[in-house]
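call fold(seq) -> tokens
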Amino acid sequence: MFREGEHPRWLYFVESGKVKVFKTSEDGRELIVKVAQTGDFLGFLALFKEDAYPESAAALEDCSIKLVPKQDFAALVFGNRDVNARFIKMLAGHIAEREQQLIELAYNSVRKRVATTLTHLCDQSGPVIHLLREDLAALAGTAKETLIRTLTDFKNENMVDIKDGVVTVLKLEKLREMPN
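ret:
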């Protein structure tokens, strides 16, 4: 949809589907900072700042995306107090999410980060998770190999089931209560 460093022309509205929002390191590794889904807006931070996109966005599955031109977005936000208030709340939520993500990356073990990632995905979409291992690893902030070992441990502990690349969470509360 857009790449880190590009200058925005649109506000993106996810009408259906899932979109990964990610940052790319100098060596090409991705860190997924959010999985956007139906009802989410993307690209608003760059539009507010009148700056380049700080991250990239790409579809994880078939999506329907509505594009709102930059000028229409500005007129709507700055001309309507209700819309303005909604975007202020979204910005505050964005900041809180990123702070929590930094704390988790800094202080949580890999097992805890993978468990937290799985619980967040369950909360969003249910217990059946259809994501590539690379994307799951990028969400958890770990290497693909480490993610695979951790998922195998979770499977051996009967917390998840894995068939044909699909992870099914069996014991959500046990993952939620994973010690650090």
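DSSP finds seven helices and nine strands in the chain.
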